[in-house]
């Protein structure tokens, strides 16, 4: 449907064969083991976020010609003479921050620094040169953008042209091949060469996928690396897009910056468990995503065989796509009174003793994560990335748009995309 066969290096995902095996592995790695691993990784993630944010500020531009003053990039940046702030491009900033955090969750801290060789596996040849950390990080950023461009192009070009379109738009799949080559090595023949401290390695998605698949007759390094490549796309693409719209809403609502900052400060010091339990932060994020879905359609399913619904009212031919309207479900006034209004406290329970319906919960009225057995298994990881970035920004800066009248998003078919040119200002508290 979106050409993943080409953008995931011939990965065949449109098949029911072994679906249970694949789903079981993903669920165990991401949902069963995920929370404990994320809790242990949190200090490393926080250190990476502080460092990455400092670098973003270092590369930003201060207002009124003021310059940034810092001894190193590893410390918080201070603005000389307390200038009016530093402005940064929203999309590029949150994309890089989210990618850095996700990279640690997936691969640890040292993967991009390894020297690798050429490996042969069946019909596959992986030519992996001594890619620097910057090259690998760049490929991780570039690959999701390659997929999105191809998804759009595949909708308007004949399927026979898809391989050519993919080759042209992705420089012959350069980012895809660099990433998968590295994954193939460390999930297969070069596993012992992965120079990551055991304490960190055992917390990563890549290590856990490999360990859990060791005794399987189905999984091999090729399938594992292809699958992890696909999970990386989902994990690295959706969080930064959500972050973009969350920052836009925060910039438009200064009073909610204050309220959320108060909640954060009341629960210091923050750790993984505390951050995930903050009710107002969770509700604000969920309401933002409800009103700013990345896709107005959800739960897409392609019929692999002719199918008739149990009530007999609708038949779906083989090859057809069935989906639901995420927009309509999340604007149903019976579920969401005043559905067009932004209510950041909408998801707080009326009775504080009642359990809150959290951002990561699967629901037919909130289909952002999909539904049923194929619901997104990595939503806990995505939620943590979003909450970490938002919380660190709010505790250190006031946020506002550089140009409040600037266009911030554009739409194509059912998708909503941010403008790359939108900038926001970080004013140090």
Question: Can you characterise this structure?
Answer:
The chain is α+β, with helices and mostly antiparallel strands and 429 residues long. It has a single domain, classed as Cytochrome p450, CATH 1.10.630.10. The protein is 47% helix and 12% strand. It contains 15 helices and 14 strands. The protein has helices at 4-7, 19-32, 34-59, 90-107, 133-154, 162-169, 174-186, 198-201, 205-212, 221-252, 254-266, 272-276, 279-291, 326-329, 379-396, and strands at 61-62, 68-69, 78-79, 86-89, 118-121, 124-127, 297-302, 307-308, 315-316, 321-325, 397-401, 409-412, 415-418, 423-428. The strands form 6 sheets. The chain has a 4-stranded antiparallel beta sheet. Strands 2-3 form a two-stranded antiparallel sheet. Helix 3 packs antiparallel against helix 4 (90-107), helix 10 (221-252) crosses helix 13 (279-291) and helix 10 (221-252) runs parallel beside helix 15 (379-396). The longest helix has 32 residues, at 221-252. The radius of gyration is 22 Å and the shape is globular. The chain starts with a helix and ends with a strand.
Layout: helices, strands, pairs:
Layout: H1 4-7, H2 19-32, H3 34-59, E1 61-62, E2 68-69, E3 78-79, E4 86-89, H4 90-107, E5 118-121, E6 124-127, H5 133-154, H6 162-169, H7 174-186, H8 198-201, H9 205-212, H10 221-252, H11 254-266, H12 272-276, H13 279-291, E7 297-302, E8 307-308, E9 315-316, E10 321-325, H14 326-329, H15 379-396, E11 397-401, E12 409-412, E13 415-418, E14 423-428
Helix pairs in contact: 2-9, 3-4, 3-15, 4-10, 4-15, 5-6, 5-7, 5-10, 7-10, 10-13, 10-15
């Amino acid at each position: 449907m979106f050409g993943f066969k080409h953008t995931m290096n011939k990965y065949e995902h449109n098949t029911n064969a072994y679906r249970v095996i694949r789903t079981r592995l993903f669920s165990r790695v991401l949902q069963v083991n995920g929370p404990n691993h994320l809790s242990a990784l949190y200090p490393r993630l926080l250190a990476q976020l502080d460092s990455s944010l400092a670098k973003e500020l270092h590369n930003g531009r201060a207002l009124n010609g003021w310059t940034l003053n810092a001894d190193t990039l590893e410390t918080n940046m201070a603005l000389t003479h307390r200038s009016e702030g530093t402005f940064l491009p929203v999309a590029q900033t949150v994309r890089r921050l989210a990618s850095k955090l996700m990279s640690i969750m997936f691969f640890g801290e040292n993967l991009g620094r390894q020297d690798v060789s050429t490996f042969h596996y069946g019909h596959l040849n992986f030519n992996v040169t001594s890619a620097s950390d910057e090259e690998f990080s760049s490929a991780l950023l570039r690959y999701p953008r390659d997929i999105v461009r191809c998804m759009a192009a595949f909708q308007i070009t004949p399927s026979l042209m898809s391989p050519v379109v993919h080759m042209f738009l992705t420089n012959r799949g350069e980012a895809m091949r660099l990433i998968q080559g590295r994954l193939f090595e460390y999930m297969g023949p070069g596993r012992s060469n992965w120079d990551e401290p055991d304490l960190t390695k055992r917390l990563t998605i890549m290590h856990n996928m490999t360990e859990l698949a060791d005794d399987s007759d189905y999984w091999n390094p090729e399938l594992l690396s292809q699958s992890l490549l696909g999970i990386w796309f989902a994990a690295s693409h959706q969080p930064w897009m959500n972050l973009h719209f969350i920052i836009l809403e925060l910039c438009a609502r200064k009073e909610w910056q204050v309220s959320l900052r108060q909640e954060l400060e009341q629960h210091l010091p923050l750790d993984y468990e505390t951050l995930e339990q903050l009710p107002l932060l969770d509700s604000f994020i969920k309401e933002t995503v409800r009103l700013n879905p990345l896709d107005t359609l959800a739960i897409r399913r392609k019929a692999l065989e002719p199918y008739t619904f149990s009530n007999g009212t609708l038949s779906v031919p083989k090859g057809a796509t069935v989906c639901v309207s995420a927009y309509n479900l999340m604007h149903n006034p019976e579920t969401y009174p005043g559905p067009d209004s932004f209510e950041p406290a909408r998801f707080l329970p009326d009775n504080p003793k009642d359990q809150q319906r959290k951002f990561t919960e699967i629901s037919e009225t909130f289909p952002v994560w999909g539904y049923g057995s194929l619901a997104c298994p990595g939503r806990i990881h995505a939620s943590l990335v979003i909450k970490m970035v938002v919380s660190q920004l709010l505790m250190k800066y006031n946020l506002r748009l550089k140009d409040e009248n600037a266009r911030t998003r554009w739409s194509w078919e059912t998708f909503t995309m941010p403008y790359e040119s939108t900038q926001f200002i970080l004013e140090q508290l």
